[in-house]
Amino acid sequence: MNTQKHISQLLYRYQCVTVPGFGAFLTETKSAQWHEVSNTFFPPKKLISFNSHLKNNDGLLANHIAKAEKTTYEVAVSAIENDVISWKNNLQKEGSMELKNIGLFSLNSEGSLVFTPSEQLNYLTDSFGLSSFVTPFIKREIYKEELAQLEERDPIVLVTRKSRPYLKYAAILIVALTATGSLGLKLYSDKVETDTLLVQQAVQKQVENNIQEATFFIQNPLPSVTLTVKEETMPYHVVSGVFRVEENAENAYQDLIEKGYKARRIAPNKHGLFPVLYGSFPTYTEAQHARTEIQKSENPEAWLLIEEL
Questions:
Q1: Angle between helix 60-69 and helix 73-94 axes, rounded to 10 deg
Q2: pTM of the model
Q3: Would you call 291 exposed, middle or buried from its count of C-beta atoms within 10 A (0-12, 13-18, 19+)?
């Protein structure tokens, strides 16, 4: 089984993919970028990082491999363990180890694990089909130079003419006639505005009377609308145990209810076993926190199931 191939598939869908006994791959969305020097635009993408301290099995990778390879959960866990042993041996012998489309692992001078993410794939599905591109620079200085050359070739010349005295008296006459006409025009405009206002008031009063006397009937009322609110999905579950006998599963379920947990029983799995859950959660972070607290206080064997129920 090619574990690194299944890790790559899960990175498209999840923010955290844990490899039991090795570490966890974490993703973070990075917005679109512009490189000023090369004038290159890069689409949004997922940045991959690695945390060697998160090694507990959350069930995500093993369940995915079991479904994809049509095998059991136990066989998938064993295959992951074998691959992890092989990776660690390669690191000790070669000093480095690469997971295809994920990144390169190497050991520094202090023997610590160093991860360099791969740039081959963009795991952000919203950016599917988008690639980086370079735009040409806009050179505005050329237009300034052309304008300066045009002004030098065709200068603007102002031409003055001799004054003519008789034009002054003609202008005075035109101003006088215009003033007289403006006065008459203003009186006429005031008259039109007054008549228009009276007509508008009469029309408004008639409309108000019609509204007061009117009675409205709805012949065909619209049917009532029922809104359905979609329930919040809770795909993350903390598992208390999986029982071969249903009676034992029911006893464990009742015990968790008495302790105050929002316990659940779900349908038997394909092996005929009866799972019992401490509870279900909408986010991976909440489920991981709850599992950690339960492992500390009550059940060290509690594990995380990620599945839409």
A1: 110
A2: 0.42
A3: buried
